[in-house]
Amino acid sequence: MVDSHDIRRRIWELAWPAILANISGTLVNLVDMIMVGQLGSLAIASVGLGGQFSWFMMPLMFAVSTGTLAIVARFVGAKDFDTAEKTLEQSLYLAFLMGIPVLLLGVLFGDDALRIMGASEEVIKLGYDYIRVFFMFYPINFVGFTAYAALRGAGDSKTPMKLSILTNVLNVLLNYTLIFGKFGFPRLEVVGAALASGLSITVAFIVGLILFMRGKLILRLQPTFRLDLHTIERILRIGIPATIERAIFSFYNFIYISIVTRFGTVALAAHQVGLRVESIAYMPAFGFNVASSALVGQSLGEGNPEKAERVVYEALKMVTAFMAVMGLVLIVFPKYLVMPFITRSDPNYADVMRLATIYLIIVGISEVPLGWVFVLSGALRGAGDTKSPMYVTAVSKLLFRILPSYLLGFGFTIPPFSIGSLSFPGFRFEGLGVIAAWFAMTIETFTSAAMFWWLFKKGRWKYVKV
Question: How many CA atoms lie within 13 A of 137 on its CB side?
Fold first, then answer.
């Protein structure tokens, strides 16, 4: 008999450190945006777009981290810690190697990517300054991301929380120092924001590496400096569909942000401000994503699919309560949430404020289904089923976000046409601008949640072999 109370306790034990770590990180991003915001809307748009391009590199991180979490969770559930630790070691080597081409991509072609996204030359100049510096730290960023995934799969979400908080505290201090040139350092502005992020990630990585090698964590790292192709193949067999999914997601997001960018710098600035505020709201969902991934994988490793299913049901109840509150806050208090990110001296203050407020009201409607997307997709990945999320992303993002954003945003014309003896007049829809893109995003969230629920109920994830 599965004890629901015990499951809820275990979900919360894993979820709250992940929630706190991500709230901490998101708060730092918000503080970062507030500091950058003092430089004006051009700097906001440049750093936001540079960060968006950086985010497009997430698929490669998912290739390693998703497979690592699923395999480590299975073997920890089966009490096979030797194989779990071997998986950890190989995943870190793989993550570092995959980070190198990303570094080269950002340094050599970051400006071209921003140009393709439709940014103005002013935004490209500042955004590329940001990208060139931050991408230098990508191999370390990949390794840290993968190590956190391994620990969470093993049931330790507190250590990633502590290391994330360390990263974030350092980031705030370095942001203040390097953006504005304090304590005798030069005023680096946008470049300072990128350098602060990279240095803080590096320091936390070094601390985490020492803890792993000294055996202070649930998993111990004993480097052999040899690649085990069988283990790497096992990681990638699960991770590659996740990579394809995230690549599709990033490609669609690339198109989506390009659509938003073409509505103008004011619309882009409002989008970036709204996105940063909303990122706080969905942090609880990320925590329950981590918990459901780890506990589903561990339950299947124990040979108990009934327990794995109960984990998901309980996680859905909990995330619904949290996200309902978050959505209500976004809808009721949007103006107050936006105000800290826009300086009154900016000539576009009123327009950015108005649009960012509208953004939060629209996305607030979809916070509960967004929580379901996090939990259900996390459960499937924790079980090793990374193909289903790939299919959902491929269909839902294109049909319900990209196409409506473009057609309803820019407008379209239907010429006169006839069917048999019936004639129909043509008409022109003028377009709703950036607001259409935000409505499309909300509709797509509801659609994705419905698709994931259907896949979960089919139950094929219970029989995936890792």
Answer: 21
Structurally, the chain folds into a number of domains equal to: 1
Q: What is the rounded CA–CA span in Å between residue 461 and residue 51? A: 34
Q: Are 368 and 323 in contact (CB under 8 A)?
A: yes
Q: What angle do CA 192, 60, 147 make, to 5 degrees?
A: 75
C-alpha triplet 237, 240, 242: angle, nearest 5°: 115
Within-domain flag for 420 = no
Q: What is the pTM of this model?
A: 0.83
Write down the H helix ranges in 117-220.
Answer: 121-134, 138-153, 158-180, 190-213
Give me 284's structure tokens: 């609880």
**Token pair for residue 134?**
């931050």
Burial 71-99 (b: 16+ CB within 10 A, else e): bbbbbbbeeeeebbbbbbbbbbbbbbebb
> What does the block give as tokens for 40?
């004006």
Residue 362 belongs to domain spanning: 4-412+426-463
pLDDT in single tens digits along all 466 residues of the chain: 567 889 999 999 999 999 998 888 777 777 777 788 787 778 888 888 888 788 778 778 888 999 999 999 999 999 999 999 999 999 999 999 999 999 999 999 988 988 887 878 888 888 899 999 999 999 999 999 999 999 999 999 999 999 999 999 999 999 999 999 999 999 998 899 899 999 999 999 999 999 999 999 999 999 999 999 999 999 999 999 988 988 888 789 889 988 998 998 889 889 988 988 888 888 899 999 999 999 999 999 999 999 999 999 999 999 999 999 999 999 999 999 998 878 788 788 889 999 999 999 999 999 999 999 999 999 999 999 999 999 999 999 999 999 999 999 998 888 888 887 788 888 888 889 999 999 999 999 999 999 999 999 999 999 998 8
How many degrees, rounded to 5, is the angle at CA 200 between CA 197 and CA 202? 110
Helices and strands: H and E segment counts in the chain: 18, 4
Structure tokens at 457: 């109920």
Q: Is residue 83 part of a domain?
A: yes
* 275/281 Cα distance (integer angstroms): 10
Strand 412-414 and strand 417-419: pairing?
unpaired
Question: What six digits make up the tokens of 7?
Answer: 């499951």
Question: Are the C-beta atoms of 273 and 44 separated by less than 8 Å?
Answer: yes
Rounded Cα distance between 115 and 123, Å, is: 9
